[in-house]
Amino acid sequence: MKYINSLEFARAQDKKDPLKEFRKRFLFPQYKGKDALYFVGNSLGLQPKSVSKHIQVELDDWAKLASEGHFDGHNPWYSYHEMFTKPVAKLMGAREDEVIIMNQLTVNLHLLLISFYRPEGKRYKIVCESNAFSSDNYALQTQVQLHGYKPSDVIIEVAPRKGEHTLRTEDTLDTINKHSKEIALVIFGGVNYLTGQLLDMPRITDAAHKQGIICGFDLAHAAGNIDVKLHDWNVDFACWCTYKYFNSGPGSVAGAFIHQKHLKSPDLIRLGGWWGHDKKKRFIMDKEFAPMQTAEGWQLSNAPVFSMAAHKASVDIFTAAGGMAPLRKKSLLLTAYLEFIINGINEKIKNKHLKLEIITPTEPSERGCQLSIIAQGIGKDFYDALTKSGVFCDWRNPNVIRLAPVPLYNSFEDVWRFGQVAEKLLCK
User: Fold this and answer.
1) Alpha carbons 423 and 403: distance in angstroms, whole number
2) Residues 10, 413 contacting (CB under 8 angstroms)
3) What class does CATH assign to 7-35+323-426?
4) Closest CA to 7 of 421, 427, 424, 415
5) Which of 68, 170, 193, 320 has the most CB atoms less than 10 A away?
6) How confident is the model at residue 122 (pLDDT cuts 50, 70, 90)?
7) Could you name the CATH architecture of 54-320?
8) Which ranges in the chain are annotated with CATH 3.90.1150.10?
């Protein structure tokens, strides 16, 4: 597509957008009486207007039925999580028995690491990216300590080459092959939180498996953003949050994937809880844990219904939109337009010390909707000025501004208007 930096062009693209009506299903923060320019869906998705209705149903059942709501409510709480099995499996490219909505992201990561990080003999090391999200770092470090090792002796980090911001797939594969006899686990973020780089998950998984190594992913910035095929890629396990692109509210419930090949393994250790126990015998109160032979077997406790109600509102929207394929199609166009606008601003900046450096890969297949930029010569002052001008983006230390035009509710006009604000601030 040939892009044009004009309001007329942006509005023309929005007019023919088959997903344009979905914007009306979300609530935007306001700036001077109008919808703010919101590009922080990679941190916290906007609230669907239907959330309050979904939660109110459960509040009403609680008020009218109390404990009987577990079985007699509009959406019985006892089996509430089962509503997500089919739609979420479709969104994550998984079989229905491979996914479960439960807990929060780092809790799920710990539960999966208990099962899949099993150091033995010379195989005890972990390969991950050098700029992983801090919560992942802490989880890996403490899991390593749980097994009696020092993190510095165990964790092998793959870093960008000198002068580069993103990882090269060949460097990751070389690291796996070089240390293959020592590695117990390979785990990366599917989309890096800082740079927005989409990793080649199929190739990384295949390289690990060729060396007999378990491979998993944190999909916090991938779920609801890109079209993943977890089952077909043969990924061993994955986890994700739902408060970013899945628009399910701050700290909302999270998800987990366990490949079918592991579900019935009698030797796979998992932490037990009564909601992971055989549901046919759950209220018999057996003393011996008998985990379900699906991803449900990783559950510990009963469903957090109010968080799940918010998630249900968003999942329904994704289903109505036709799943990830049409969203990804629009996302590629929208993010490319943002890239075009930013490059155009750089051409107009008169101060040679100022520049908006995009550190996210330029190849569309290597990124989601997020673009990460370093504002050379102006840094956080530029971020603060954007915020005061009604542009919602976010800052990540040491010097990165992240912008995510989300296809469900962002428009080409949003991107164009961002360009007008940024140009006014930088091209004085």
Assistant:
1) 16
2) yes
3) alpha beta
4) 415
5) 193
6) very high
7) 3-Layer(aba) Sandwich (3.40)
8) 7-35+323-426
- 3-state DSSP of the chain: CCCCCCHHHHHHHHHCCCCHHHHHHEECCEECCEECEECECCCCCCEECCHHHHHHHHHHHHHHHHHHHHHHCCCCHHHHHHHHHHHHHHHCCCCHHHEEEECCHHHHHHHHHHHHCCCECCECEEEEECCCCHHHHHHHHHHHHHCCCCHHHHEEEECCCCCCCCCCHHHHHHHHHHCCCCEEEEEEECECCCCCEECCHHHHHHHHHHCCCEEEEECCCCCCCCCCCCCCCCCCEEEECCCCCCCCCCCCCEEEEECHHHHCCCCCCCCCCCCCECHHHHHHCCCCCCECCCHHHHCCCCCCHHHHHHHHHHHHHHHHCCCHHHHHHHHHHHHHHHHHHHHHHHHHCCCCCCEEEECCCCCHHHECCCEEEEEECCHHHHHHHHHHCCEECEEECCCEEEEECCCCCCCHHHHHHHHHHHHHHHCC
What is the distance, to the nearest Å, from the Cα of residue 56 to the centroid of all Cα atoms in its chain? 27
pLDDT tens digits along 67-92? 999 999 999 999 999 999 999 999 99
pTM of the shown model = 0.96
In this prediction, residue 146 carries a pLDDT of 97
Q: How confident is the model at residue 286 (pLDDT cuts 50, 70, 90)?
A: confident
pLDDT of residue 353: 87
Identity of the amino acid at 426: L
Residue 284 scores a pLDDT above 90: no
pLDDT, mean of residues 270-281 = 93
Which pLDDT value is given to residue 413?
Answer: 98
